[in-house]
Design a protein that fits this description.
about 325 residues, four-stranded antiparallel β-sheet, globular
């Protein structure tokens, strides 16, 4: 089963200022028996910067950084344990947050580390190589890396991720005051991507996991420009692949504090637009497609959107693949005619 989206559901925990278990068992779609990670959108209505942090269930990381401003939103991708649990830390009143689950990663599509791996080497300002080879599980063949990234400076600093072979060079500012977010970027055949830091104090990348090489996942070496010209309302994104079922997007702004969002075509009742926060010029987003259409929202035309990773429908299994799957799941094989 490929990456699977659901109708978004709020799972904000009751307590705050400590890491709390969030059990996603009830929200995993039927037929998905091997979920290993979740797609999360966090929205703040507090009006001020608030710390938050997230771990795979059972993780021991204590990393917390900021989400900024009223209606600010951020996407992140987190591992879940065998009991379908991840851990979330929200500062002060939980009533200032919404924590929506949008979908799940299957074990055949992704792997999530028990704890983050920190990358903070190199000599900024420059694009620096990040090699995740030593962090792969067994013989896994990875095509994209999943990160937390953050700015540890008190002022906005340039930052960005890209495929090792990319020429995109998008490294606009990540906001000040320890702001963090999530990002998925392609890697090359040597398991290398690039991370840009504008200054030695402008933060680091923390590897959370990776996407595996499957026929349903496609990584763009250079992001496909899917920017909109219509402002103030959702509109169909241009230039999407004709067979897309879900997309993961990079968002770049010229002016800070502008709203943007993504949603499945025709979705109502759960608007996804939100500001990236004070001083922030770099964001991310994800959405399911309906009839190969994803809608986007921009508040101004100086907001650009780029498709980095997308999924397509799984092809039919061959008889050999069916037998392999049945044996793996300890189901008595059937005779194929």
């Amino acid at each position: 089963m490929t990456i699977t989206f659901i109708t978004p559901v709020d799972v904000v925990p009751a307590d705050d200022d400590t890491f709390q278990d969030v059990d996603l068992t009830a929200h995993i779609p039927g037929g998905m028996t091997n979920a290993v990670g979740a797609i999360i959108r966090l929205t703040s209505s507090s009006g001020v910067a608030r710390n938050y942090g997230f771990n795979k269930g059972g993780g021991t990381d204590t990393f917390v950084k900021f989400l900024r401003d009223t209606d600010a939103h951020v996407w992140f991708f987190v591992g879940i344990d065998v009991n379908d649990i991840f851990e979330l830390n929200l500062q002060t009143s939980s009533a200032t947050y919404q924590v929506h689950v949008y979908g799940f990663f299957d074990t055949e599509d992704a792997f999530f580390l028990a704890n983050d791996v920190l990358f903070a080497s190199g000599t900024p300002p420059a694009w620096e190589d990040i090699d995740i080879t030593d962090d792969l599980d067994g013989s896994d063949d990875a095509v994209a890396a999943i990160f937390k990234f953050y700015n540890s400076s008190s002022s906005a600093q340039d930052a960005g991720f890209q495929h090792k072979s990319s020429t995109d060079d998008r490294n606009t500012k990540l906001g000040p005051d320890n702001l963090q977010g999530g990002f998925i970027t392609g890697i090359d055949s040597n398991d290398v991507c690039e991370f840009y830091r504008g200054a030695a104090t402008s933060g680091s990348a923390r590897l959370v996991g990776y996407l595996k090489s499957t026929s349903e996942i496609t990584v763009n070496v250079n992001g496909t420009d899917v920017s909109l010209s219509t402002t103030g309302s959702f509109a169909n994104l241009p230039n999407l692949p004709s067979d897309i079922t879900a997309g993961f997007f990079e968002v770049v702004l010229t002016t800070a504090d502008q709203d943007y969002g993504f949603r499945k075509d025709g979705e109502t009742g759960h608007p996804q637009e939100g500001t990236v926060g004070d001083g922030v010029l770099h964001g991310y987003g994800a959405a399911e497609a309906a009839s190969n259409i994803i809608e986007g929202f921009i508040a101004a035309t100086d907001i650009d959107m780029f498709l980095l990773v997308y999924t397509t429908a799984a092809a039919g299994l061959s008889p050999v693949e069916i037998i392999t799957m049945l044996n793996r799941d300890k189901i008595n094989p059937i005779r194929l005619m």
